[in-house]
Amino acid sequence: MSKNVETSIDRRRLLLGLALASTAAVIPDNSGAHASKLPENPKLIALDAELPAVAEAYHTAYRAYREMEKRWNEATPRAPDEITELGIRSPLEGPKQNGEAEMLALGGYLYRPGEEFPRRIVVETWNIGRQIDAARRTKRHAKKNGAVADFLAAEEEIKRLKKFHASVSAYEAKLRESKWMARADHERLFPVRNQKLIAFARHVGAIMSEDDWTMEGLVIKAAALVEWNRVCMRDRLYASLDGADWHGSIAASILRHAERNG
């Protein structure tokens, strides 16, 4: 059993102990002996027993995806400094900046350490190709006019630009390959993460939908909600988008038990 599952079970045991103590305090004992423990909904008990495995399946899939995401974020090739300029504002803010924002292999903006905004890629191989063509025209024109100095300068410029082109071309090829491989990993791992998330949400929903007959059932629901709150905020939106009102369900149960024992 994993540490996360053990922690979840221990938390539920603690809450259950407190709830049972509270139940004993509020149930009248007219016979002079302790009141017998009321039975809890067996379906709720069964769902509670299954929850740790369902939760751990989601967390395992989530960690696998996040580790993959982190690996590709670190492996994304950085553009050569010569083809970038510093960003001056968020890419989402206007007016438009030069070039395109530097991106991660899996999508999202690439923020370099110590820099507030993503860099802007302002030069691509096609830009350098046009410069090479212009230098070649200059070279031909110099040759035709017998301008030796201009001819030699253009020849040196072509050599420099070709080397520059090769460097940028290698970066662009590596970035394309990284994007392709990262996308393949995403398509392999994200469906598993999403499937486990849906299973987790539906399981918690099933717990919330069952009637809680005693305080033990209320604690089971509260513990399930605590377990669900360990899910990342973006994934927790799944339940709200599905129209679930689990906090409202807990509140209704608390009021029902208070009225029953009042």
TrEMBL record:
It comes from the Bacteria. InterPro entries: TAT_signal. This is Uncharacterized protein. The lineage of its organism: Bacteria, Pseudomonadati, Pseudomonadota, Alphaproteobacteria, Hyphomicrobiales.
